[in-house]
Amino acid sequence: MDTDISVDEFVADARVWLDENAERRTDRGSDFVWGEGEFDVAVFHNMNYEEEQAYIGGISDWLKKKAERGYHAITRPPAVGGLGLSRAHQRAYGRLEREYVSPGRHELIGVTAGLIASTVEAMGSEGLKDRFLADLLRTDILACQLFSEPGAGSDLAGLACRAERDGDEWVINGQKVWSSGAQFSQWGELIVRTDPDVAKHKGLTAFMMPMDIPGVEVRPIHQMSGGSSFCEVFFTDARVPDDLRIGDVGAGWMVAMTTLGFERDHSETGSDGSSSGGNWTKLLATAQYADVLDDPVIRDLMTRQYISGRVESLTNRRAADLAKSGTPGPEGSLGKLLWTEGMRTMTETVAAILGPKLLADTGEWGTFEWGEHVLGAPGYRIAGGSDEVQRNIIGERVLGLPREPRADTGAWKDIPR
User: Pick from 60, 192, 196, 385: CA 20 to 30 A from residue 1's CA?
Assistant: First the structure.
């Protein structure tokens, strides 16, 4: 495709392709019609293994279809299957595609094509880029994050999973937890400790980790919201070659922060509520169905929720403009914090709207389903860095406030645990 194509010309061309390959939404501008189909406001999927595998496969198939035209990687270079166009073209396509029925969203797809592909592109060797980037963007392979541990969640730099060098290989031992989609992944982005004798941030190294080799065991975790999207992953003398290393030895913290920067960047999330956990349209429709919009307390809560969503959307657009280098900065933490706070206030608002119907299944469409939002929303106050971590990042890196006193300096091996 001509890289000089205007946004309007690009959209017109894409509309023709979408008309041939997808179904237009009949409601044009809304994700649903009240009382019809499935009412989904879940933050995390509530599916068994086979259902979730099929769901992921459907999304992946759609990405592969888009890849035939480069619509899966609009801003990426043609060498990896992209179109080499601007973020304005990408945003315009995103708005256009929302006019058509989509196969949905899944965190593993976002992690694969959004986070890990972007990290390999930013930090990987030329060999890693050639080997993985195009396949990750197309989701020909799926990859999970292998970051958090039972003793290192918000304090990711304190992780204890070890890698010891043995010639041209590294021997991995330890445990990871909360790895979304690990049971469906062929690869993972692994952060491990390779030097316990230096400060905790400096002794980490990153790898592309094959998930099907001896010594890797994946155990799904049953969540209170019903599904098993998260997993524990155990490594016992698992061997990974050095040519799968991302970045330099000891540069794992920088690799992890690059990935988390992309994770906290919600600049491509539309204000129509295309992200998980419900949206303004469904909240408003629920209030209309419950006939509570004349209640001044409900009206106040709804107004606050709408304003919060608009502020989040505008903040994300600003963060996108600041991230023209391709790597989101600390401003992404503000967007992530606004997003999780918006889910918390949505829980408060829908509880006021529905009252006991939120807890008791009366069989009424679009009511009891909100319980999955309530059970799942708190998880994202931890995922991708807790709210407290986001506030520290904003305070220190955006506002220039002094760092908090630390008691964990010095060599990692000497830090009490």
Answer: 60
Amino acid at 197: D
Please report where in the chains the tokens 């029925």 appear, as a residue: 101
- 19 CB-near residues (< 8 Å, 6+ apart): none
Q: Which of 210, 177, 109 is nearest to 382 (CA)?
A: 177
Instruction: Identify which of 272, 278, 206 has the alpha carbon closest to the alpha carbon of residue 240.
Output: 206
pLDDT in tens, 304-358: 999 999 988 888 777 766 665 555 667 678 888 888 899 999 999 999 999 999 9
CA–CA distance, 386 with 389 (Å, rounded to integer): 5
Note whether 43 and 380 are within 8 A (CB).
Answer: yes
Range of 127's domain?
43-138
**Claim to verify: residue 384 and residue 275 sit in the same structural domain:** yes
Sign of CA dihedral 389, 244, 248, 320: negative
Tell me the pTM: 0.85
pLDDT (tens digit, 9 = 90+) per residue, 260-313?
Answer: 878 755 545 443 444 567 889 899 999 999 999 999 999 999 999 999 999 888
CA 367/CA 414 separation, integer angstroms: 53
CATH for 129 = 1.10.540.10
CATH of residue 200's domain is: 2.40.110.10
Among the options 52, 189, 263, 331, which is catalytic? 263
396 carries an active-site annotation: no
CB 277 within 8 A of CB 376: yes
DSSP 411: B
Q: Which residues, including other chains, have CB under 8 Å from residue 314's CB and lie 6 or more apart?
A: none
Q: Please give the backbone phi and psi of residue 234, each rounded to the nearest 5 degrees, phi first.
A: -115, 135
Domain count, the chain: 3
CB 200 within 8 A of CB 152: no
* Three-state secondary-structure class, residue 233: strand
Q: Cβ atoms within 10 A of the Cβ of 125, count? A: 15
Which of 216, 346, 224, 335 has its CA nearest to residue 281?
Answer: 346
Beta carbons of 285 and 366 less than 8 angstroms apart: yes
